[in-house]
Write a structure and sequence with these properties.
By secondary structure, this protein is an alpha/beta fold. It has 13 helices and 13 strands. Helix 2 runs parallel beside helix 3, helix 5 (155-175) packs across helix 6 (200-210) and helix 7 packs across helix 8.
C-alpha cells in the first residue's frame, strides 16, 4: 500500500508542478470561438429548451465533455458545444444531471428530443477520449441510448497521429528552406525541466513509443501556446452550478461556482480551438472519425471525403461525410490514398439500420464489361440465401430512408395504428411513420409540408 501511496503523491506533485510551470510560461487560455453559456436543469423553461432544439436542428458539429463527482464518481454534468463557424456565436450547454426535470414532465421530453437531434445520423460528435466512456455513466438518466449513429471523432486519438504528421510536414518545409510559408507551425519550446516540458519532437517520440495519450492541457500548450488550468478536475460537480437551482448546495460561494463553470465551458471551447487548428492544417490524419452502427456494438473508422472543405472557419457546415453502404468492416481504417476513390453520399437520418458484411461490390469498367458480367453471375451463384436476403433488405433501406428527408419528431405513447388515425384526422399526407423508443418519426414529401405540419402538431399530440 505504501508504494502505491508514494506513487500517487509523486503524480500529484508532478501535476502541481506542471500547473505552476504552464502558468508561468503561457498566458491563460482565452476562447477563440464566441459563445453563449446556458444551463439545463429542473428550472429551465420550455421556451429555453425549444430554443436549444431549434439550434440543434441547424447544427451538425457538437463538442462533448462530462464531469463526475470526486471520489463517488456520480455523473453530474454534460457539456455540449454547438460548434458554429468561428465568427458565429456558439451555444455551450451545461446539463446538470443531478438536477433534471422529473421524467414525466414535458420539459424532460423536450430534453430527450434535444439529445436525439444532437445524436442524429448526420451529426459529428467531437470528444477528447472515447465517447462511450463519457456517456455510459449517464445512461441511468434515460436521456439517450447507446450506441449513437452519429460520426464520432475521438480527437485525443487522432491528435497523436496528426501531431506526428504535422511535425514531419514542418520538417519537410524546413528542409526546403521555405521559412516564409504561411502554413508553417513554429513551436518554441522553452528549455525547462525536460520531464515536464519537452521539445515537440521529443514529446512526440515519447508518446508514440510508449503509446501514451495526450492530455488536452498539453495539446493546448503545444498548439495554442496557452495555459488551460485543470485544477478543478477533482471537484463535487453536483452542487448546482446555476443560481436558479433552488436545492443547490449553498455552502459554496458564487466565486467558487464561477471558477467551475469557466472550467466546464473551457473544456469544450479549447477542444473546439484544437479541432479548428487541426482541420485548417490540411493534414489528412485530422480527418478520421468513427461511426457506430445502430444494430451492433462494433465500430469502424471513416475518413471524410471533401479535401477542399477542411476549414471550420470557412466551411464548418460543409464537411462531407462518407457513408459506404456496401462495406461495413469492424475496426477498418481506410488508407489515406483511398479517400478519393470511395463513394460519397449524404448521410441522411434513418432509424432502423441494417448492415451486410457479405456483399462484394464489382466496379464496372467499360473495357471489361463482358468479363465483369460473367464474374457477377458467378458471384450471384455463390451468394447464400441469407446474404441475398440481407442485400435486399439493405437495398430497401436505401430507398426507404429518402422518405425521412423531411421529417417531424414527436414523443408518442400510442400504437402505430392510432398514430395513423390521428394523422388522417389532422389531414396530414405522410410518406412513412415509424416509432423508435417512444419517439415518433413522420416522413413528409416536401419542406413546405414540414413547415406547415410542424405548426399543426403540438408536442403532446400523440401522448
Amino acid at each position: 500500500m505504501a508504494p502505491k501511496t508514494n506513487r500517487n503523491k509523486r503524480q500529484r506533485d508532478r501535476k502541481a508542478e506542471k500547473e505552476r510551470l504552464y502558468g508561468e510560461l503561457f498566458a491563460p487560455y482565452e476562447p477563440s470561438h464566441p459563445y453563449s453559456l446556458h444551463f439545463v436543469h429542473n428550472a429551465t423553461t420550455c421556451d429555453e429548451l425549444k430554443m436549444f432544439i431549434d439550434n440543434a436542428q441547424t447544427t451538425t458539429n457538437f463538442v462533448f465533455d462530462t464531469e463526475s463527482n470526486y471520489l463517488t464518481n456520480f455523473p453530474s454534468i454534460i457539456q455540449v458545444m454547438f460548434m458554429k463557424q468561428i465568427q458565429e456565436n456558439s451555444l455551450v450547454l451545461i446539463i446538470e444531471t443531478a438536477h433534471l426535470p422529473v421524467e414525466s414532465s414535458y420539459e424532460f421530453l423536450q430534453l430527450k428530443q434535444l439529445f436525439y437531434l444532437i445524436f442524429r445520423r448526420q451529426s459529428h460528435i467531437y470528444t477528447w477520449g472515447a465517447l462511450i466512456d463519457e456517456l455510459t455513466p449517464f445512461l441511468q438518466f434515460n436521456l439517450f441510448h447507446l450506441p449513437v449513429s452519429s460520426y464520432i471523432h475521438n480527437t485525443q486519438q487522432v491528435f497523436k497521429l496528426w501531431f506526428n504528421d504535422w511535425l514531419a510536414f514542418q520538417s519537410t518545409l524546413n528542409d526546403n528552406d521555405d521559412q516564409d510559408n504561411d502554413d508553417t507551425l513554429i513551436i518554441n519550446a522553452p528549455a525547462f525541466d525536460p520531464i515536464i516540458f519537452l521539445h515537440p519532437l521529443a514529446i512526440n517520440n515519447i508518446k508514440r513509443s510508449r503509446n501514451e495519450s495526450w492530455s488536452i492541457q498539453d495539446a493546448t500548450a503545444y498548439i495554442l501556446n496557452q495555459y488551460l488550468p485543470k485544477k478543478c478536475t477533482l471537484r463535487q460537480w453536483s452542487i448546482g452550478l446555476d443560481d436558479r437551482i433552488l436545492n443547490r448546495t449553498r455552502t459554496y460561494s458564487s466565486t467558487y461556482r464561477k471558477k467551475m463553470i469557466s472550467y466546464a465551458a473551457n473544456d469544450c471551447t479549447s477542444l473546439a480551438a484544437i479541432i479548428t487548428f487541426m482541420y485548417q492544417s490540411h493534414i489528412p490524419s485530422a480527418l478520421q472519425c468513427v461511426q457506430y452502427p445502430s444494430d451492433i456494438g462494433e465500430y469502424s473508422f471513416d475518413q471524410e471525403q471533401n479535401g477542399s472543405s477542411l476549414s471550420f472557419q470557412v466551411h464548418l457546415e460543409d464537411i462531407t461525410t462518407s457513408d459506404d453502404e456496401d462495406m461495413d468492416y469492424p475496426m477498418a481504417v481506410h488508407d489515406i490514398n483511398e479517400r478519393h476513390s470511395m463513394e460519397i453520399s449524404n448521410a441522411e437520418p434513418y432509424h432502423q439500420q441494417l448492415h451486410d458484411d457479405n456483399v462484394l461490390t464489382i466496379i464496372n469498367d467499360s473495357n471489361l464489361l463482358n468479363d465483369n458480367i460473367n464474374i457477377k453471375q458467378k458471384i450471384r451463384q455463390r451468394r447464400t440465401v441469407q446474404a441475398q436476403k440481407r442485400r435486399n433488405q439493405k437495398t430497401s433501406i436505401r430507398h426507404r430512408k429518402n422518405r425521412y428527408i423531411y421529417e417531424i419528431i414527436r414523443p408518442v405513447n400510442m400504437s402505430i395504428k392510432l398514430v395513423k388515425n390521428k394523422l388522417k384526422e389532422f389531414g396530414i399526407n405522410y410518406l412513412n411513420v415509424n416509432i423508435v423508443r417512444s419517439q415518433l418519426y413522420i416522413g413528409l414529401k416536401s419542406h413546405q409540408d414540414q413547415i406547415e405540419y410542424e405548426n399543426l402538431l403540438s408536442m403532446n399530440s400523440f401522448v
